[in-house]
Amino acid sequence: MLITIFGAKCIGIDAVPVRVEVDINAGIGIHMVGLADAAVKESLLRIMTALQVLGFRIPGKKIVINLAPADMHKKGSGFDLPIALGIIAASGQKELPRLGRFLIMGELGLDASVRTIPGAISIAELAKKEGFQGCILPAEAAREAVEFPGIDIYGVHHVQDVLRILEGNDPVSDLLARNLPGIDNPPATPAAANDYMDFSEIIGQESAKRGLEIAAAGGHNLIMIGSPGSGKSSLAKALAGILPPMDREEALLTSKIYSVAGLGDTREGLIRRRPFRAPHYNASLAAIVGGGNGDNILPGEVSLAESGILFLDEFTQMPRSVTEALRAPLEDRKVTISRLRSKVVYPASFMLVAACNPCPCGYYGEGNRCTCSVGQRLAYFGRLSGPLMDRIDIQLSKI
Asked: What residues pair up with 8 in beta bridges, in sequence order?
């Protein structure tokens, strides 16, 4: 008997449909086809153990599992749940009349619990686009997408919860993501009211604070040049607190990026706080811009800072290849990552806040404390090219 279950795979911040086809017929053995990676192939033992815990028998026949389209690589453990449901339905052990109405994803534990997966918001968006009645996701992942409009999102903790939904015999409103315990109301205040330093706590530095206010009002990139201990990092952290609140479109786009990266907010739905990302100056090119192998390309810091601030301290100490790679995102507000067989575009609309010293020793302009020669100072700032500095609208020096 052939059964089809609908799943999804994330490519960039968008999800594409994957059909999980399970056929049980005369023969012997379990066969999985469809360009599955090691994590998907290892799922078979997890699935069989979980089904036995639930009291289902493993058919002593040939089980063929196909992940279509067959020419697209499938990765991750999110296909555990649809494969398990396919085996249950194809073997006739349960009647699941609502199976084709939902897009289903989730990782299985050996005790048949359902564990979280990345990309919940993108999966919910695909389900709405493809006309599904709803999608069934692990409870933690469903919390990320609780505010996604126009579709029923169910959050499950156990395979038994999924069977309740698909059999359609019992009311399942308690499994809707908006009714799950632990869902908080979206915060009414911007990021300023939370973990960031308050702008009012900074005493003095009036000219620098004025520059930051202008940058926040217009979304301008800026660089602060000053001696060690002059307050550059504190000013950058305080800047996050005076940015305007995120609108719904910004919150949805930022949340999709974090969801795909596995960093979504499972308590409050969409991310409402503007991101503040501060990677180390020795971070690699892939960490800043994004990267990975094959079609497993993850977003970097420029995308994780979407609608927020990317703070780069010791800017002149960063590898030139990394600073020059920022030119395209600053200009195009997106980053394109190309590999041999794949190309992914991530949003990268952020405010760049850079900080550096005025010279290698850090004390140029502080009386006679500077020990650097003119050549050393020129070489120090020569690491930052003209095209890059042209993209930084506000330059504050000797703050």
From this structure: 17
Structure tokens at 205: 């530095």
Tens of pLDDT, residues 20-33: 999 999 999 999 99
Dihedral, CA of residue 304, residue 307, residue 313 and residue 316, to nearest 10? 90
143-168 pLDDT tens trace? 999 888 889 999 999 999 999 999 98
Gap between the Cα atoms of 162 and 272, Å rounded = 30
What is the DSSP code string of 29-68? EEEEESSB-HHHHTHHHHHHHHHHHTTPPPPSSEEEEEEE
Distance CA 393, CA 250 (A): 23
H/E element, 214? helix 206-218
Is 22:3 a contact under the CB 8 Å cutoff? yes
CB 173 within 8 A of CB 128: no
pTM above 0.85, yes or no: yes
CA trace torsion 310, 312, 316, 319 (10° rounding): -80
- In whole angstroms, how far apart are CA 72 and each of 8, 34, 35, 68, 157? 12, 7, 7, 8, 29
Q: What domains lie within the chain, and their CATH numbers? A: 2-179 (3.30.230.10), 191-397 (3.40.50.300)
For residues 82 and 80, what is the distance between their CA atoms, to the nearest angstrom? 6
By CB atoms closer than 10 A (0-12, 13-18, 19+), residue 256 is buried
